């Protein structure tokens, strides 16, 4: 297959979430320079009169972050020299993606805490950026954790200097003396259901079930396991419940690998950038902890820096029986980061279960289709959805059907984020059509997607697999569920609007 599937063109690649303050108004350096003399000293003007800063100067990038947080968010903020300096528009995208997850009707709110949203920021850093943004933008409360003295000291200062939101944020020390592996073992001992859950693939956990012990050797195929201070287990207190956790993990395995982007200077100390095993090991630990903490969090999320790690982590999540996995792409200039989210809360809408996994006829209803869209638009979107995975498709506007020929691999592409979501939470439907170029796969299966008009604004979409025992039968329901999500996002009005 080589790089075929990665070489698809993206029709559009939104770089900023539509709710992001900066989506229509990028930072205005000239205005900020005129208002803040301390920032003015870092601003120069190119020949065509455009204001710019020297991105390789840490003092300049830190001052930009400071004035953006002050001017646009009313936040007082500072970090000592060399600490990781966050870019405000990029960090805001992660917050808004979580906002999308929380408002999605797939995983309903379980927290008894009314409308208050409670988040958990793993490794908040000296900059404490996520709690500050989440609290000031959306009124969320947070526990922000860290394991280093300097991070804890400055995160606390940054909270204290913002009395308008300081009540919402608790900075919690992760005790480095604690051995996270022994915590894991003692938790296993306590929960001790002893059940081995070997076939939990994509099954849905039920509320009130005993916490399973680690049924899988998650780290067996990882190059290196995480060792170090606890991450969630041992930090989350008994009985605590959160709507989500988030994490910008130490991405790198070594200082050399962390390097420094010569084009920018955002600081970053070894403690912030590096951990044994890198992000793969760190996020694997979050997954392991989530298996034990289950529904203590509605959503578990993390940033992921490398696509190969994202794929590895998604396959781990499939092993441990989460109820749903969501991904998104954060585009930052020329670099890409991914958001990975999962949950153990049973989905409100039935999406994946072993019994439906084997059904060869599956359907769903699209209600509240916006007026400007016709059934043909929906058909074309269905075609594009499958074509973007490399499957071949034939659209028929007379019978209102799309005939698809796809392999297990194509389904994997769909389910492993190749039809990825943009940072605005909507799936990017890739518009390059591959019908004529798709590589012949050895064991292709055929299925038909039919679209039926019900009443005005409502369509029934039905997927029919030609052979019940075809190789893709196991993935069929997940693929149809993914299709449903994409079409709903694209064509249907939000409930209540
Ligand atoms: C890449 S920095 C992220 C800082 C900040 N959240 C941001 O996005 O700029 C990673 C942070 O994780 C912290 N960290 C490392 N291991 C940790 C652990 N086990 N628990 C909590 N924080 C940890 C580091 O000290 C560092 O501050």
From TrEMBL:
Residues 1-23, 179-198 are annotated as: Disordered. The keyword Protease does not apply. One of its GO terms (cellular component) is nucleus. Signal peptide: none annotated. Belongs to the methyltransferase superfamily. METTL16/RlmF family. S-adenosyl-L-methionine binds at residues 91, 123, 146, 248. It comes from Tripterygium wilfordii. PANTHER family: RNA N6-ADENOSINE-METHYLTRANSFERASE METTL16, SAM-DEPENDENT METHYLTRANSFERASE. This is U6 small nuclear RNA (adenine-(43)-N(6))-methyltransferase. Its EC number is 2.1.1.-. It holds the Pfam family Methyltransf_10. It comes from the Eukaryota.
